[in-house]
Amino acid sequence: MKYLRRQPGIYPIKTHGASLMGQAGLPDIVGCCNGKFFGIEVKQPGKAPTPIQLFQLRQIRKAGGHTLVAVNVDQVKEFIEGLDR
Question: Which CATH number fits domain 2-84: 2.20.28.120, 2.60.40.1180, 3.40.50.300, 3.40.1350.10?
Answer without folding.
Answer: 3.40.1350.10
